[in-house]
């Protein structure tokens, strides 16, 4: 490998560090300006001083702690590099990509887990078979108007109800979709997610075939409600709003025996969870990242495909979302907290690195196998992909010392495994091949090439993974798309999920699939009214970094004006 | 300790160096002298000349339940005396530190008794009974295992192994525990591994020459011996990977392979 400064990620590194990527010496080390070289840290220090003065209790104060009390590490002795969010022109600091500093990242998580998806076929059958009613486009439209009132805390059955201020939940609403164009066209367009409009023709046809003639309802529980409680209330909130809407719009008797069928339909019968309940030590309700089946990631992202030429744009969007969900939210915040898992999660969607390495690998795949998703699913392919991706990355880390500095410690190991995962996924179109390539890269190739992997214990999940991930016993593994953090060996560490889910996104994109795990989830997230833009994951995160993203769930309307 | 050699696949300069470290017969080159007192100062667990703290009476004075393992395993001097367990931790730069964490970890396994260790991405923790640790620390600091520029003694703020080097060629340390004395050309520690200031500077010798570091390197590296060229090692890794998967899925599939 020769030095190549035209590589996108090397170019951005040189531009942000303002030195040559091949230099092994940092002449200004220890003289980069401390915390004050960072606009964000400076802002935080000044703000924290104000807080400390007002409340009389010290707060964030890195310079005082490190330089005056001589406790801890003096920050900013190395260069605190800005980063460019991949695929955008937005530069920011890593602080802007901490999920609690970035409203867009928070909204991405909220929008996924405040979603309740339920099939209306059963309640409609109850209305037809048990009540002898007619269900018509008009009655469905009437129901939809009603549920859009009840879903945001509007009363329909009686007085003495405390209703919600609509200003607290403008993001709460209900829509429907179906694979039957005639039914979809007969409904009030304000309430319909139009598959034909949201997807290219070929994918729309596949999705309609998957959704079939069923009518699916998507309820967006207000972000404010989700944040005040947690994902465990989503199906209950939906059931209350839905059942009351059925009772009212079809003039039923509140409390009659048949009403239980509506409640059952709304909560259980054909209800799609965005996550099953976590295992006991991570106990929360349903709709938490722990229980999210990883196959849903490909279904949630909506970026336009560039296949058959290029699997990278969609894969890259998936990687950004996976990094946020598994690495930052789950590992960084739910398991660790405070500073979280360092800057690691953000490195996967900055400086166009994934894309730049990806284009090297897609060229290699074309030369070796021809088309994407065409390589045979066998050991030779898995090993060849794992080796090529791993070696290519290792060579880059050797040639450009700026790169390992940017990807300190743990991150280089996962970055390499992600590349191995993507390479095998694009070559074979098989998510299992991707996962095995990633594990092979970490446990054997990386470890024996450079005698290091990642954080202590990090690789420990990769070793059992080799042996048990092809199993479908419930305590060990599942078909890859159905796995998630609730599978024991996947739960403890930062990267135990990351590249497995990435392999799914990359493989299904290489196969030009319309969905990975559920056509219903795919359509549910094609809704243009969602607050977070799932068509533009990185761009929306970038808006959050610039503080230009308007989130939902704000309480401004009920607090004193400032 | 009985002589032994842990097998390792391949035959190239990198693998052959690894094989040396995986042999109990290999004697690392001693390249500097650091006094026992200075070793104790650098470790920072007690003051030189003070007695070891103990966590239990000497084993000879203890009445313990019969345990056949105790008859098989000779206790280390520290265990015999009842010393507390203390640590030493090294950060090894990715820029040619002689023994990266996993090599260091494996080398400990070949050479030490009565220890616990953990290999991270950039650092390796070692815990032993205190008097055993003093002896081990001397071995680790005085031999070719320790390059003053690319290896550092750190119990906290270990970050830095993957960063570029400073203008003197030293690995980054946000706690500035060591500096190059430009007059003597030697690296001097001004703080303990915990980053507590020392009363006097302790020299740990001159940094090794870049070419020497390449000669004793145990990693594959572009521009030296590329991992792409480690044919036999790659072949063995493929076999290990396949057998792990097959063994977990259906052990009968492993038969005959």
Automatic annotation (TrEMBL), chain A:
Top-level taxon of origin: Archaea
Matching InterPro entries: Me_CoM_Rdtase_asu/bsu_C, Me_CoM_Rdtase_asu_C, Me_CoM_Rdtase_asu_N, Me_CoM_Rdtase_asu_N_sub1, Me_CoM_Rdtase_asu_N_sub2, Me_CoM_Rdtase_Fd-like_fold
Molecular function GO labels: coenzyme-B sulfoethylthiotransferase activity; metal ion binding
Residue ranges annotated for the Methyl-coenzyme M reductase alpha subunit N-terminal domain, each copy included: 10-276
Cofactor section: coenzyme F430
Pathway: One-carbon metabolism; methyl-coenzyme M reduction; methane from methyl-coenzyme M: step 1/1
Enzyme nomenclature, EC number: 2.8.4.1
Record bears the keyword Ribonucleoprotein: no
Positions of the Methyl-coenzyme M reductase alpha subunit C-terminal domain: 328-450
Pfam families in UniProt: MCR_alpha, MCR_alpha_N
Broad enzyme group: transferase
GO BP terms in the entry: methanogenesis
Family classification: Belongs to the methyl-coenzyme M reductase alpha subunit family.
Oligomer and partners: MCR is a hexamer of two alpha, two beta, and two gamma chains, forming a dimer of heterotrimers.
Name of this protein: coenzyme-B sulfoethylthiotransferase
TrEMBL record, chain B:
Listed cofactors: coenzyme F430
Subunit organization: MCR is a hexamer of two alpha, two beta, and two gamma chains, forming a dimer of heterotrimers.
Classification lineage: Archaea, Methanobacteriati, Methanobacteriota, Stenosarchaea group, Methanomicrobia
GO terms for MF: coenzyme-B sulfoethylthiotransferase activity
Phosphoprotein as UniProt keyword: no
Reaction(s) catalysed (UniProt annotation): coenzyme B + methyl-coenzyme M = methane + coenzyme M-coenzyme B heterodisulfide
Pathway the protein contributes to: One-carbon metabolism; methyl-coenzyme M reduction; methane from methyl-coenzyme M: step 1/1
Family: Belongs to the methyl-coenzyme M reductase gamma subunit family.
Keywords from the UniProt entry: Methanogenesis, Transferase
NCBIfam families, alphabetized: met_CoM_red_gam
Any single biological process term in GO: methanogenesis
Name of this chain's protein: coenzyme-B sulfoethylthiotransferase
InterPro entries, alphabetized: Me_CoM_Rdtase_Fd-like_fold, Me_CoM_Rdtase_gsu, Me_CoM_Rdtase_gsu_sf
Transmembrane feature ranges: none
E.C. number(s) listed in UniProt: 2.8.4.1
Source organism of this protein record: Candidatus Syntropharchaeum butanivorans
